[in-house]
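sanity check this fold:
=====
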Amino acid sequence: MVHLCVYLFKQNMTNTSHVTVKTTGGRIKSIIGGSLGNLVEWYDWYVYSAFSLYFSNSFFPDSNETAQLLKSAGVFALGFLMRPIGGWLMGTYADKHGRKKALTISVLLMSLGSLIITITPGYKTIGVAAPLLLVLARVIQGLSVGGEYGTSATYLSEMAGRKRRGFYSSFQYVTLIMGQLLALGLLVLLQRIFLTEQQLHDWGWRIAFGIGAFLAVITMYLRRSLQESASFSVEKNKTSTTHGTITELAKHPKAVLTVIGLTAGGTLAFYTFTTYMQKFLVDTSGFSKAEATLISSLTLLVFMLIQPLFGLLSDNIGRKPLLIGFGVLGTITTIPILTLLGGTKDGWIAFGLILAALIIISGYTSINAVVKAELFPANIRALGVGFPYAIAVSIFGGSAEYIALGFKTAHHAQWFYWYVTVCIALSLVLYVTMRDTRKHSKMEEG
């Protein structure tokens, strides 16, 4: 598989096209192509969280399940710490050499990480080398997804027309959520049809990572057909402009701080009610693993479908009202929703509460990519979107599970509810004071 990855990567590098897409059909084709690659990237990233209930005992032998989950969540958080480096390296590369090439490299790294996890023996077989290899794989994947977000957000925003930019760019989160949903959907199939509980714990979880490695290679091939965005095609010919450097990014401090501020509360809320929720339902509410997976899958399905609706709404009323709506409602409802979830044993009530939270969060998720892209000029856009976003998501999103489980272990689970609420409230301050990027966009500047 490694040789195949290298071959496809070389083929892609020799077939790079800088053709500008001008027709609606060409634009839609490029957006679909970029989105499908994004889907596979995020499937590979989230399959770790979806299956950690089953593989944590293979890498971290411990009699206490919460302790095992805490350790696997720590590795999940470590992967996030690599995302700023990935955002910096890949953002710089994308601004200098093109969005298409950067997207191809990111999926190659993701495939390698999934392959390592697939074939790594457990702790009982190779001892401490097992968790070390798991850490290595997640470090590689952290670099990959750190570069993927900024580059794909930039690419989709640049390929979209001005009038429907919010709608088209919302498909980044459609495919992001779909990747997570596919990971959970595969787990549901394995749980309910193909494997027993013991088989999933023993070896069945490896199937999910193997599929991810294979799909990433296919995606690398598909990305060969992507066309470069018009913004980069024009910008690359400007000899007077500095492309993708930290020095150039430093000239936009307000935009950088805006990306960090608007991301903090949104990404924490997103990871709380998506990746962590499956474990919350098992470890706090008392649902079985199969029930928790099914509830999480159903809520994510609806969440995915409504993203374009919110994106379309932002094209008509602006980005700022949606962000403020998320900030206000998120601040008011997070503690009540999590408190009620922790005490319910009814699957439909749990579904309704999680869905209500995700509908609120859609005011952030559906438009956060386009808002960030609209803050930066083309010569620094991929780095400007990816690097500060990765810093914020590493601090707040990647640590969500670890902090939540840490508070639970210390018998102060409700402190986490307050932590999420305060972070959303702080982001709300920025939402209220920032300019609406739909009206004040740098996308039209190049």
User: Anything to note?
Assistant: The radius of gyration is 21 Å.
